Amino acid sequence: MPKEKESLYTRKYRVAWESDAELKGWIGPVLADETKSLCKICKCTLAAHKKDLLLHDSKYSLIIDESTAVDSTKMLCVMIKYLSKKQTKIVTTFYKLIEIEKGDAITISAAVTKQLELDGLKLGNLIGIGVDGANVMISYDLDDGIVCAKCSCPRGLAVCHHMAALCIHAHHNISVTDKTCLWSKRKPAETEQVTKISDIYKPKYSGFKAAQRSATESEIVTLIQSIGDATPVGFTWWLLPEPSVDLMLLPDIEAIIFSNEYTTAPNKEDYFLQKCCVSESIINRVAEMTIGQSNNANWLMARKYRLTSSKFGAVLSACQKKKYPKSLFKGLLEGYDLSGVRAVQWGRENEQSAIEKFQEITGLHVEPAGFCLDECGFLGASPDGYISENCIIEVKCPFKHRNVEKLSEVLTSNENYVVFYDNSSWTINENHIYYHQVQGQLYITNKDMCYLVIWIPKDTIIMRISRNDEWKNNINTLKSFYCQQFLANILL
């Protein structure tokens, strides 16, 4: 075709297109080239192509993508690719938006064929079609196998290679949730080789000895005792002697509540109270056998499943609010290991220093104490020592204030602690958990007064707390809590 006639079929942009139902809202002019349009959505330029294809009888390819619009209408977006005689290059541009009823292969093929016929484009000139992957769905039952398979390709109504490919892929790529838990699989037993320390740390030369002589029995006992005086750890536990056989005279709470007699008793609370109560002789014997407290295996065993005075404040607060969180019972069941907490560790390490300072200031002698039981058998207390027949001592070493010069400077009007300094005098905070601990110790040990010692390296405060007769009602509250709330959590 003569070149001078190209201008006769080169279509220019028309403003009327903006009113066309198919083009309205997304097409606009390209100011620099009147032979092109602008897609407002994707900002691409669209060249005129229909007459170019018709006049030159060109070969072309289609790129088809099916999608669902927001109004649930299925649309085919068709791009066309052909050799432009005018531009002397291969052009890919927008061709048509075709509405379809459903997205299967037969419907798509019929819609595209019909549109090409309406536009006068020869189907014989179509040399290629580009589409995205077929939509395949397979339903699989563990017992019956494949029960349903569908594909959007032309052969999807029967069986196609897309279905086969998906089955093969699924076979080799099983979901991790369908596999047996590998972490629960028992590992094969490995033969462990026991190696002597002498084989690991061989002497530098033959006949070498770290000590000139072997340690005596008394030296070994002294070493074990000195290790136990520090913060107890797992290693010191192994060095402790086994609990005394005499401790068996103490009622075993765990054995009581798991016994057939308890589970079948008409009134479980009455049965438990009867089996758990202890005599005065047992109370005195247990207190004697548990001296040394955390360094004594008997003390650790005697406290098991019993409510101790250090927990009285937390329990009374929960009873007052009538709220019993899980954290409360976890703490009562020793679920929290506090031995590694620096504040607790520091307090244990300096407790003896505080007692020695108290003895130096007052001239009073402190006798070591064990675990003292209430006659009910499930309430107990461990004061830090006894002073004469009517007094006990309780020591607190506040880690937070360990570097302070004077406690009166940091505890001034501070009611967040068991004591506070106000108007040139020290006052006891009766709402603090330590106050409930002291009162619980006084009632369970049947003593009249407690020396409360607040110790830091550079200062020491000594307060006297008398037994409060009004506090005695809390003992009944603690017993009711134990029987009605705490026992149920032991059984869990």
From TrEMBL:
InterPro entries: PDDEXK-like_dom_sf, Restrct_endonuc-II-like, YqaJ_viral_recombinase, Znf_SWIM. It comes from the Eukaryota. GO terms for molecular function: zinc ion binding. Keywords: Metal-binding, Zinc, Zinc-finger. The keyword Zinc-finger applies. Residues 136-171 form the SWIM-type domain. Pfam families: YqaJ. One of its GO terms (biological process) is DNA repair. This is SWIM-type domain-containing protein.
